[in-house]
Amino acid sequence: MSFLQYLINGISIGAVYAIIALGYTMVYGIAKMLNFAHGDVIMVGAYASYCVTSYLGLPAIVSILVAVAVCTLLGIVIEGLAYKPLRGTPSLAVLITAIGVSYFLQNAAQLIFGSAPKNFKSIVSMKALTLFGGGLTITGEVLVTIVVCVAIMVGLTLFTSRTRMGKAMRAVSEDRAAAQLMGINVNQTISVTFAIGSALAAVAGVLLCSTVPTLMPTTGAMPGIRAFTAAVFGGIGSIPGAMLGGILLGIIETFSKAYISTQFSDAIVFSVLIIILLVKPAGLLGKQIQEKV
Amino acid sequence: MKKFIALMLAMLMVMGLMAGCSSSETAAEAPAAESAAGAIKLGMCGPLTGGAAVYGTAVQAGMEIAVEEINAKGGLQFALNCQDDEHDTEKAANAYNALKDWGMQIMAGPVTTAPSNVVAGECANDQIFMLTPSASGVSVIEYGDNIFQICFTDPNQGVASADYMASRELGTTIGVIYDSSDVYSAGIYEKFAAQAEANGLNIACVEAFTADNKADLTTQVTKCKDAGCDLVFLPFYATEAAQVLTYANTIDYSPIFFGCDGLDGVLTVEGFDPALAEGVMLLTPFSADSSDVATQMFVAKYQDKTGIVPNQFAADAYDVIYAIAQACEKGGVTADMSASEINAIMVEQFTSMTFDGLTGKGMTWAATGEVSKSPMAVVIENGTYVGVE
Amino acid sequence: MKKLLKNKTVLANARIYLLVTLGFVVMFFMNNAGMLSSSWKGYLVPICVYISLAVSLNLLVGICGELSLGHAGFMGIGAFTGIVIAALLKGKVESDFLRLLIAMVGGGILSGILGFLIGIPVLRLRGDYLAIVTLAFGEIMKNIIGNLYAGTDNNGFHMAVTTTKMALGDGGKYIINGPMGATGVQKLATFPMGFLLVLFTLFVVLNLVNSKEGRAIKAVRDNRIAAESVGINVTAFRMKAFVVSAVLAGMAGALFGLNYSSITASKFNFNTSINILVFVVMGGMGNILGSVISATVLYVLPEAMRSLEDYRLILYAVVLILVMLFTWSPKVKEKVAIVSDKFSRMFKKKEVETNG
């Protein structure tokens, strides 16, 4: 029975990683940059939601909408001010800028909200399901997170395969120059990608803090790195890969804590990652790109 | 390339200028400094930014209140300068040096143990008196005879907790969750485990987490539940405790939760439902709900200043300033003395004096720098701390 | 022609050595004359450490084109090895300088061996996958060091990686105490040793870069397949750079560890790795002098901004972003050029007017 409980706990945190990883993977796939500020956008989303429910007393659903709106706007602003001017420069230059943005957001949050942690009230009001006479508990947050995660993945897959904008994204991801020649507005496509990625970050932030109630300026940093790992694990750039990577990472993390050692769980998780990358160098679902001379 | 080097060099020059004026600037900016011409200079460093900032800012606010009060009375005047160490050993050394440049005469810090290990080494070397409000690691006071603590040492708390559990027969099966990446938490656990064994307590389950994976503590709680623990020892801080309590509540797990002084403040985590902390026991020297007049006045002032209820860090910091002031007055310390002269007087005073503060009455210090005060066990009932005998 | 080229690199290298030596001499004499504040005295050794780290990482990132996010891991191995060696040799080796040197060499060697072992599987990967694996490696190292116990008792030296505290016999004294890290470390690090480390790092890296091997490494960076096709053993060169970089980081780590009376494993985390990477990228990838300058400037910058209190780190972030925009963005550069052009014209006009 405890096995099932661990599995559910693992899926629960894994699904949150998965949603964050989806944002990472989209931005990476299209803009070819590691957006290390993504984790901090999550934190901003969570604070936005917290403010709306706690200070304005509005219902949870409104807070999610506000969080999504705030993060989308933030994503567009960051992209326009910090990343767009650097388009076409080496990816490391953009990476360092992203780190600068990350520091900026964390410190700005501390100046605005203070450093004291806030306890985030879960947006899910559903009662936990208790099975097998109390042997197994599935919280409402777990169910909602998993449903949202699958919905986002399906939605994104449909969006990229069916809509005009989605197709443009795939084209830009495949070959930026060729896409431009075909009349696709590359700059606009990348900006839209950022907007979508940041909106996902807002959702991830609300769900992360519903599962793990502590909210402080550094809340997004560690889950951000975990999710980045998850995205690479699943094959960066691949949408189903991010989902799979996130959930697997959550399960591995929980199982290594449950059955091997809580002290060494970080080492175990990252060792598994290294082994998988050695066997499948492009991640679980990543495409091995043929190199052209 | 040339432009780049020019840019860098230009920045270097600007920095040089800033470094040049910063020493005078900080002195002017430090609160209370302007009112005091011949003030004794107190330095403090702690995490004012980053993940541990909540403790650093609490200490800063507690000290500022104490310094304002003392200066308003007339008599000895103090100036306080607080520097950020980001809870990092390397930055702590830099913060300490910045304080030395400012002319610090007494070190009233640092806040957390890891940076304190570095600063204590420097203070012992430079013969600057150091009294830390909250760095409870036993290694801190081992650096020299002039390093003092106002909080309990970690082993003390671990031993006291194990003794308390054994004498009250609180639990038959005990679980422990601790932060193995944190000096404070690991220090308490280590001594707790040894003492629990000596007392014949049955520890069924020991789970750890690290700063990197503390986002998810559900597994650790589930393991304690599976092991059938009816008492869970949580030697860490309120933030993580709020997580543990929230999750335990969702899976209907309600053993006795027992914590140390770090757990204090769990009731004041913004947005935390105090009902979840019902029945939690902790050893703490300070509770904000105490009927003590001095405590109530401090709590009111602190709330005025910061808008939140003070935790034990803030109270310890407040006591640190008053203890230093008392020692300075008795020892006849004046602002024109050198740091090492003051050091000698302070060491003599601290090993001989008795101090009454918010976090304990009749505190005394051993020559090792360790404080002697009695921990108080409190239990949370109806959202407030109630002392248990 | 060939001679001239050679002369050029020799000149460029001489310039780097000259600048570093000049910086050392000035600082050394100012320090001896008591002209430095405590803060600046405290910066000297860490600056040397970070210069070495930045230059050695630049070898990987700039020259080889491999993004590594785990440099702090090697630094940590070096630091803890150095601390253990220095503690064990206490009383056996009289000279502090020699003891420090042995500790640094030991830290470098162990870090290099681990670098080699890790390099075997890791260097099969490329690009961002290599980056994530180095990140993973850094985290694993941090986790293991955080559970490492080392100490001496009457029976000699003991070391263990365990979850429960290692017990020591009579007369036991811990050097590294698991999560509590190393405490009570004797501070051996000195500024002259830091300078020697910087010189050594520069010597190794510049020689490697300007040798035949260095050209091969750059060829691998610019076009791996083309390099392979002309018979360059790509893996061997990547491995060489990886190990050299690990050795230098380990030595720098040992010096760093012995500069503070206490250190914990959590210091060698992802943030530290990223900080070193920031030094490298800000200084210009592949530009050794750039790394030296930017490590110095960026180390001192946040410290010099202490008077800004709460706004210190947010301003540091802004500076970081602005410098990246000004040095890289084609558009911003263009605008800067236009503005400076206007200024210079204004001045010229004035000159003409006054002349006329």
Outline of the structure:
Chain B has 389 residues and is of the alpha/beta class. Helices cover 46% and strands 18% of the residues of chain B.
Kindly describe this structure.
The complex is a heterotrimer of chains A (293), B (389) and C (356). Helices cover 72% and strands 3% of the residues of chain A. With 293 residues, chain A is mainly alpha-helical. Chain A has one domain: ABC transporter involved in vitamin B12 uptake, BtuC, CATH 1.10.3470. Chain A starts with a helix and ends in a 14-residue tail after the last helix. Chain B has helices at 2-29, 53-72, 89-102, 113-126, 154-168, 183-198, 218-226, 238-250, 293-306, 312-331, 339-352, and strands spanning 40-46, 78-84, 106-107, 129-132, 147-149, 174-179, 203-209, 231-234, 256-259, 281-284, 355-357, 360-365, 371-372, 376-381, 384-387. Chain B has a seven-stranded mixed sheet with strand order 7-6-8-9-10-14-15, sandwiched between helices. Chain B has a five-stranded parallel sheet with strand order 2-1-3-4-5, sandwiched between helices. In chain B, strands 11-12-13 form a three-stranded antiparallel sheet. In chain B, strand 6 (174-179), helix 6 (183-198) and strand 7 form a beta-alpha-beta unit. The longest helix of chain B has 28 residues, at 2-29. Chain C is mainly α and 356 residues long. Chain C has two domains: 15-141 and 181-355, ABC transporter involved in vitamin B12 uptake, BtuC (Orthogonal Bundle), CATH 1.10.3470; 147-176, no CATH class. The longest helix of chain C is centred in the first third of the chain and has 31 residues, at 2-32. The termini of chain C are far apart. The model of chain C has no long low-confidence stretch (mean pLDDT 87). Chains in contact: A-B, A-C, B-C. Chains B and C meet through helix 1, helix 3, helix 4 and helix 6 of B and helix 2, helix 11 and helix 12 of C.
Q: Give, in spatial order, the strands making up the sheet with the most strands of chain A.
A: 1-4
Which geometry of chain C do the CA atoms define? globular
CATH class of chain A: Mainly Alpha
Radius of gyration of chain C: 23 Å
Biggest interface between protein chains, with counts per chain?
Answer: B-C, 55 and 55 residues
> Strand content of the residues of chain C, in percent?
under 5%
CATH topology of chain A: ABC transporter involved in vitamin B12 uptake, BtuC
* Estimated radius of gyration of chain A: 19 Å
Distance between the termini of chain A: 55 Å
- Secondary structure tally: strands of chain C: 3
Q: What is the helix/strand order of chain A?
A: HHHHEEEHHHHEHHH
What's the helical proportion of residues of chain A? over 70%
Please count the helical segments of chain A: 11
The CATH architecture of the largest domain in chain C: Orthogonal Bundle
Average per-residue pLDDT of chain C, rounded, comes to: 87
